[in-house]
Amino acid sequence: MKMRSLQFAVLALLAPAALAAQGNGAGRGMGGGRMANMSPYAMEVPPTADVLTKALGLTGDQAAQYTRLRDANVKSTQALRDSVAAQRAKAREAMQAGNRDQGMEIMRASRTQSRALQDAAQSFDSSVAALMTPEQKPKYDSWKKAETQRLMQERRQQFSGGGSSN
Q1: Among 146, 162, 165, residue whose Cα is nearest residue 154
Q2: What is the torsional sign of CA 130, 133, 136, 141?
Q3: Is a pLDDT exceeding 90 seen at residue 36?
Q4: pTM assigned to the model
């Protein structure tokens, strides 16, 4: 029974980000399978230009433009990411201590900030995609999908007691 409670807690912690990511911009709710559009770096700092250069073959000019976009994104979202991370940690602690209602309330309170992060990540993503050639865009989409899956797996392991992801 304790394992089932922990599994529920994990789902509860991941659900707000997944729901925000699946939102269609208007309804912001269950978006009918839009998980592929989820930005892998809503809660994470976007990767350096070196990572994308290696994955996508960015030119020097593209890498420089990406770095400027990334730096602006990190600066404008860091306080919000820190706040959401702190709230999620409090929710996780409450749920692990057996206080599901308190944990859920903390998560509900963080939804607005989580949505703001997802919106910022989507805006950043659109700006990054605009830098790319038509040949790079499908590679970028594949990279985002793989990165999203990797980060979700790391979070599942973290929340299920599998330790840190590093």
Answers
A1: 165
A2: positive
A3: no
A4: 0.68
Q: Which two tokens stand for residue 56?
A: 């996508």
Say which DSSP state 41 is in. Answer: T
Q: Convert 18-32 to b/e letters by CB count within 10 Å (16 or more is b).
A: bbbbbbeeeeeeebe
Tell me the torsion sign for CA atoms 61, 62, 67, 69.
positive
pLDDT the model gives residue 127? 94
Q: How far apart are CA 21 and CA 48, in angstroms?
A: 22
Question: From CA 83, how far away is CA 131, in angstroms rounded?
Answer: 30
The one-letter amino acid code at 14 reads L
What is the three-state SS of 108-144? Answer: HHHHHHHHHHHHHHHHHHHHHHHHCCCCHHHHHHHHH
DSSP-assigned letter for residue 37: G
Tokens, residue 146: 């793989």
Predicted confidence (pLDDT) at residue 148 exceeds the cutoff of 90: no
CA angle (108, 16, 73) in 5-degree steps? 105
pLDDT surpassing 90 at residue 132: yes
What does the CA dihedral 75, 124, 92, 105 come to, rounded to 10 degrees?
Answer: 100
User: Percent of the chain, pLDDT > 70?
Assistant: 72
